């Protein structure tokens, strides 16, 4: 009797089952990697936007004459003000959309720079969850004009990204009108 060699039913079932498990794991791997890649892209965009805004604010403060608010030891403020190089007050604030919940419940807003001349507001960043400006209490020998800035940006799924910088105005020899 000459029998042809063939696979048994159990062997075929085992191969199909293992192949299915392998394919399911492979598909799940690609779905998860795609999910995290999109999440990473959103984080990179939020960090780039926030860093660009912070660099602009730090440059403005460094080119300015002196800080107006916050004062040393005042605590964290959601806005700040300083005198620009030409002696005009500049304000930095976080604007929330109309109807947004109050500050503890984070809702994305925009970081706005306002000049004293009444011109249009300059939007520095969108998707800002919080802004904290602080000048620490000044013990002897410390800089009373050093401002610490914390910008909280919204990333994927509403997760916050904290960006931190410090700046101080350069000393100006010319007295501005507000110093008199």
Please give the count of helices.
Answer: 1
H-E string: HEEEEEEE
Spans of at least 5 consecutive residues whose pLDDT stays below 50 are 173-180
Give the termini separation.
Answer: 117 Å
Q: Give the neighbour order of strands across the main sheet.
A: 1-2-3-4-5-6-7
The oligomeric state is single chain
Largest sheet: 7 strands, antiparallel
Give the radius of gyration.
28 Å
Q: Which outline best applies? A: rod-shaped
**Classification by helices and strands:** alpha+beta
Strand content: 25-35%
Give average pLDDT, whole number: 82
Count of distinct strands: 7
Proportion in helices = 25-40%
Structural commentary:
- Residues 173-180 have low confidence and may be disordered.
- Strand 4 and strand 5 (122-134) form a beta hairpin.
- The longest helix has 55 residues, at 9-63.
- A 7-stranded antiparallel beta sheet has the order 1-2-3-4-5-6-7.
- It is α+β, with helices and mostly antiparallel strands and 180 residues long.
- 31% of the residues lie in helices and 29% in strands.
- The chain has one helix at 9-63, and strands at residues 66-69, 79-83, 89-95, 109-115, 122-134, 147-154, 160-167.
- The chain starts with 8 loop residues before the first helix and ends in a 13-residue tail after the last strand.
- It has 1 helix and 7 strands; from the N terminus they run αβββββββ.
